[in-house]
Amino acid sequence: MKTFGVMLLSALSVSFAMGKSLPKDIQSVLTVLDKTEYSTVVELADALGDSSVEQTIFTLSFLAETLCYYAEKHPQAKPQMLAGISRIIELVLKGTITPFRVLEQPGLWNEYNLYLTHLNIILGKYLGMTDHCEYHLLNSRICDYLAEKIVTHPYMNIKSYPNHPELWPADNAATLYSLYLYDVNFGTNISAQPIRAWLDYMDQDGLDETTGLHLSELTGMHEYSQYARGCAMSMTVKYMADFAPKQAKELWKGYKKQFKKNYVLGCGFLEYPKGVRLSWDSDSGPILSNGLGAAATGLALMASKNIGDGYTYFQLRNAMGLMDLGVWLSRDEKTKAVMSSILARSIQLNARYR
User: Fold this and answer.
1) Whole-angstrom distance, CA of residue 18 vs CA of residue 38
2) Predicted structure pTM score
3) Residue 135 neighbours by CB distance under 10 Å
4) Beta-carbon-side half-sphere exposure of residue 342 (alpha carbons within 13 Å)
């Protein structure tokens, strides 16, 4: 395979010859991806402005989708976008970033399912744009592994990390989306059984009785487990909009009814159901005094765009502008770091170019 630098230079020459220039935000993504060799995952997370390995994987997954969306709307930029996604794959597969010594052996994967899910999404976006089959076998093996894990689990949900027994449905929605991408790319049907099993379980046993929405966690081991959460619902709808659009629209309708707060031309989403007051964590991001959650509101940008809710997306874009101003004026450095990280920006870009 060509090195990323050669591919990028080739792509840039094509763009120059056609007299086209990339938007500044897309060009900045390519620049960040290309400018440094990262020897450890900590260095990569620091460069991206993320606080954890998990956030870095999310960031790279959202950016890969963004570049794919841009290429779909601007075919002349496809070589550049492919080069960018190729670079993302290199970063995710790099030995110091991957939790595996030998990625090609599923027997050693040890249920690092969140990592595998977002690697699978990135591979799916790449293979949907190119005839190169370099990553097809790996993509196929990950799909087989994740699909079997879901359909053989009594809750039809799999854990995200080997040392954490929690079962987060939102992470599993991303897993199912990664299987769905494989089917779209290769005309297979590997996602059908896991999707049906997951939807049936969530409808029958995975609902918060008070709101009728998905529980945020299924083992009950946390105080928040008994509730639906905004960050989880926004993420779930983002992915379900593709692999289960009918159910996603119903979920979105109920979610908006109980979690959305309108403010003239803006809006935000609560992190917890009305009347529930719990502390913010790494999943929710900062929670304002009125209960609005940073992650719930930010991720709803992608959910609203994917589900086709143009007015809510318009409101959220307005709200994001006010939040950016608030971050600029804020004296809380932790809040500034969360809201201005590349993860936060990748969410906005993902929604903008969908």
Assistant:
1) 33
2) 0.88
3) 20
4) 27
